Amino acid sequence: MLSNQEILSVLEMLQNENLDLRTITLGISLLDCASDDIRRFRGAVYDRITTTAENLVEICDRIGEKYGIPVVNKRISVSPMAVAGAPFAPDQLVSAASTLDMAAKSVGVDFIGGFSALVEKGLATGDRALIEAIPAALTETERVCASVNVASTRAGINMDAVLLMGRKIKEAAELTADKDGLACAKLCVFANIPQDVPFMAGAYLGIGEADAVINVGVSGPGVVKKAIDRALAADPQMNLRQLSDLIKRTAYKVTRVGELIGREVAKAMGIDFGVVDLSLAPTPNVGDSVGEIFQSLGLLSIGVPGTTVALAMLNDAVKKGGAFASSNVGGLSGAFIPVSEDLNISEAARAGHLSLEKLEAITSVCSVGLDMVAIPGDTSAETLAAIIADEMAIGVINKKTTATRIIPVPGKKAGDQAFFGGLLGQAYIVPVNNGKGDNRFIRRGGLIPSPIHSLTN
After folding, report:
1. Comparing C-alpha atoms, which of 318, 365, 317 is closest to residue 337?
2. Distance in angstroms between the alpha carbons of the first and the last residue of the chain
3. Residues 6+ apart with CB under 8 A from 322
4. What is the pTM of this model?
5. How far apart are CA 30 and CA 45, in angstroms?
6. Which of these, 214, 330, 328, lies nearest to 272 by C-alpha position?
7. Residue 8: what pLDDT?
8. Adjacent-strand bridge partners of 206
9. Percent of the chain topping pLDDT 70
10. How far apart are CA 247 and CA 12, in angstroms?
11. H-helix or E-strand spanning residue 381
């Protein structure tokens, strides 16, 4: 139970510090919907999703109102479509994506994830069909999100899949050129993807999960920033160890609130509670920024020297506080740096404080990767693949999750602005070193072997 002091602290977070529950994501298994008839498969998928998630939004709203803590996003993740829909051709999988979209609209959720494939060691027939379908599927749907895992510490990096994804990202951008390449904002390429991510666009329900499960994403960057500001106003001489402890205690409070709501939603729906994802996920709203935390800590801006160590401290403190508050920690659990979704980070990119290279460097200590990064539209597919491969290497070597969500904005160049709308926000386009250059290394393909420290048995 929360103590009186914790309750008062939470009330302050609600009133003045943008505390909310960022997402409740209902995972739904589609594996027993499998069929070799696409019409039967689509019907079974639609029925499974709409039946299981029928009351999700109403229950989330009711319990959120009960505690005065809004659940901002209600989402669904499903089994990897490359597995559930393995018999089907690309055009049939595009129609399956339309079914996912219709089901998501029917139950009123924001996004549905799981148009996904796991290809870290090789490409099966269903994987190839799904990847081929991704550009059209994300163009023709509104709420469907896709993810492809191309690398893992145990398997290595599938460079054939990496190059294929570079080409598909380029194709998806061109298909949505009138929307600044919006389809790419719904597509993540991963190394070491967790099976229980509640945040989009990477959410899917892993093969080892239950038939249905509730996963929670708590977030709360505004709460962390205000806690730091308040502490430094009282004691400007606080050192970094003290600030780290403050962040840890703040994350503890946020996590306890998130788990309370998530467990009540799961109980009301009669399904299992899964995990709490501790990630600090910003929005485009002022006061709800990860970037502003760096300024509160004393840096001019995210991206300047000192950023990497500050992020390492922030990420570690958030995980320690959350892990103490819950035994069900999972997902990504760290700090997101989505450039377009955080006004402060977007401005740092415009001002030149934050480059693509610095973004890549700081992903070595955070839990995501190159997230919602807009780059020039004439960047080649090979260069896109090389950017992905670099990020995958960071995840594989460091035994952590990394991802890329990069958007080559058609017709725009470095310094221009891209607009994606809503939670996806807007971004200044960052330059890419040798963006149109030849890359024979990437074209060689094959599997880059797993590192020696993958031999853990």
Report:
1. 365
2. 40
3. 218, 251, 252, 254, 255, 276, 278, 329, 333
4. 0.90
5. 7
6. 214
7. 57
8. none
9. 94
10. 16
11. helix 381-397
**How large is the average pLDDT for residues 301-313?**
92
How far apart are the C-alpha atoms of 290 and 116, rounded to whole Å?
A: 28
Mean pLDDT in residue range 298-305: 92
Alpha-carbon separation of residue 173 from 16, 308, 368 (angstroms)? 39, 30, 22
**Per-residue pLDDT tens over the stretch 161-205:** 999 999 999 999 999 999 999 999 999 999 999 888 888 888 999
Q: Can you spell out the DSSP letters for 274-333? A: EEEE--B---SSTT--SHHHHHHHT-SSTTSTTHHHHHHHHHHHHHHHHHHH-S-B-SS-
Cβ contacts of 255 within 8 Å, gap of 6 or more:
218, 276, 278, 321, 322, 325, 326, 329
Alpha-carbon 315 to chain mean position:
15
Backbone angles phi and psi of 160, in degrees to 5: -65, -45
Cβ contacts of residue 43 below 8 Å, gap of 6+? none
In the chain, count of helices (H) and strands (E)?
15, 13
**Beta-carbon count within 10 A of 397 CB:** 16
CB atoms under 10 Å from CB of 457, counted, come to 3
Q: Is 54 helix (H, G, I), strand (E, B) or coil?
A: coil
Would you state the structure tokens that stand for residue 440, as one six-digit string?
A: 């024979």
Q: Is 248 helix (H, G, I), strand (E, B) or coil?
A: helix
Given the structure tokens 């000192």, which residue do they identify? 306
pLDDT in tens, 202-253: 899 988 888 999 998 887 788 888 889 989 999 999 999 999 999 988 888 8
Residue 247 to residue 320: CA distance in whole angstroms = 9
User: Does residue 20 surpass a pLDDT of 60?
Assistant: yes
- Identify the band that residue 367 occupies on the pLDDT scale cut at 50, 70 and 90: low
| CA gyration radius, the chain | 21
pLDDT tens string 79-112: 999 999 999 999 999 999 999 999 999 999 999 9
Residues in the chain: 457
* % pLDDT > 90, the chain: 55
Average pLDDT over residues 310-336: 83
CB 194 within 8 A of CB 187: no
**Strand 21-28 versus strand 71-78 pairing type:** parallel
φ/ψ (deg, to 5) at 126: -65, -35
Phi, psi for 338 (deg, rounded to 5): -80, 110
- Cα separation, 196 vs 198, in Å, equals 6
